[in-house]
Amino acid sequence: MRTVILKVNREEPEIDRIRAAAEIIRKGGLVAFPTETVYGLGADALNPEAVARIYTAKNRPPDNPIIVHVASRDEACRLTEEVPANARKLMDTFWPGPLTLVLKASGLVPRITTGGLDTVAVRMPGLKVTLALIAESGAPIAAPSANLAGRPSPTTAEHVRQDLDGRIDLILDAGPTKVGVESTVVDLTVDPPQILRPGGVPYEELKSTLDRVELHPVVLAEREIPLVQARSPGMKHRHYAPNAKVIVVEGRMDAIVTKVQELADQHRKTGKSVGILATGETESRYRADSVRSLGSRRDLASAAKNLFKLLREFDEDKVDIIVAEAVPPEGLGLAVMNRLRKASGFNIIRAD
Starting from the edge strand earliest in sequence, which strands make up the sheet with 4-7, in order? Predict the structure, then answer.
């Protein structure tokens, strides 16, 4: 398969390019496209054979559910048995945007799309080019991140090309994504609602909208939690990992800096190439083969935007080990820490 790349304007998408991509979706093909969070790999969510091609292209485990992207609330309602009051409140507040809702699936949704579950994860993205593609396709679009399973999620079309060139039909290139981590996933089939995956809508904002909302234990996990079923992407399988081994250092700031440099020195003495994932406040204090900064610890939105890009850049640097500073688990920092811990396989060292 030859993968075509088409440049497209994210705010005023060229209709001929949107129609070309939508035609591929309608014919059962695969199109990678930008959202405000990361690039997604899309297929007609109601076509089981097309969705199966997503799993094949990504080497994705079959029990990992796929988020379904819609262009309207009415379309979301067609995919679900019921939309409870809490779901409507979240739609009113955060849609279109980086929030996915887990609801009881209607009979329209194939079980391959839901990972075999009786629930469906739906979201209405906030990027005009994405909404135009869904509307022009005439069908909801199932779309996990457009990367090989387990790899850092793609925030540029080049990241998609690196992983999926020759495996998919088309990549729509609208430049770097804005948020940089995936959508927040909230399960509304339980009481109180549960955040299954932190993401582009912070926990604090959800708490201010709903009377009650809880964090699922996997969100804050410091070790792998065995799960029989994953109700959301990002819960069960290996995710977000670069080729290098990742070590996450947590604790007080000064202790973190000391421990990060100590670990880097230890591994370099054994002949390993070491990268350090720092922040703006500490970047100049480190010595390693590659030092990259997420941005200021006071701007966790930048940390989220830069995370996956930097993990991929360390791969380009061909480092063997990445030693990463923890960031405060608040706001978008909660999503950053969730991704870092999973990328490390919960290889976490306390610096206190």
Answer: 4-7, 170-173, 31-33, 40-44, 141-142, 68-69, 119-123, 99-104, 184-187, 194-197, 214-215
Whole-angstrom distance between the N-terminal and C-terminal Cα of the chain?
52
Gyration radius (Cα) of the chain, Å:
20
Q: H-helix or E-strand containing 304?
A: helix 300-317
For residue 318, how far is the Cα from the chain centroid?
Answer: 23
- Judging by DSSP bridges, how do beta strands 214-215 and 194-197 pair with one another? parallel
Q: What is the DSSP string of 197-253?
A: E--SS-HHHHHHHSS--EE-GGGS-SS----S--SSTTSSS--S--SSEEEEEES-H
Helix (H, G, I), strand (E, B) or coil at 317: helix
For the segment 303-316, the average pLDDT, to the nearest whole number, is: 98
Distance (Å, rounded) from C-alpha 74 to C-alpha 285? 53
Distances (CA, A) of 213 to 36, 197, 203, 235, 302: 24, 13, 9, 18, 26
Which residue, 232, 252, 259, is CA-closest to 342?
232
Residue pair 171/3 in contact by the 8 Å Cβ criterion: yes
- Given a contact cutoff of 8 angstroms between Cβ atoms, the answer to whether 90 and 64 are in contact is no
Sequence letter at residue 256: I
Q: What confidence tens digit (pLDDT) does each residue in 245-262 have?
A: 999 999 999 999 999 999
For residue 12, with 0-12 CB atoms within 10 Å meaning exposed, 13-18 middle and 19 or more buried, which class applies?
A: exposed
What span, in angstroms and rounded, lies between the C-alpha atoms of 150 and 148?
A: 6
- Bridge-based pairing of strands 141-142 and 40-44 is antiparallel
Please tell me the predicted confidence (pLDDT) of residue 133.
98
CB atoms inside a 10 Å sphere around CB 229:
12
Cβ partners under 8 Å of residue 210, min gap 6: 86, 89, 90, 192, 193
| CA distances for 88 relative to 93, 101, 115, 165, 168, angstroms | 9, 10, 24, 39, 35
Which pTM was predicted? Answer: 0.95
Q: What does the buried/exposed string (b/e) look like for 273-288 if buried means 16 or more CB atoms within 10 Å of the residue's CB?
A: bbbbbbbeebbeebeb
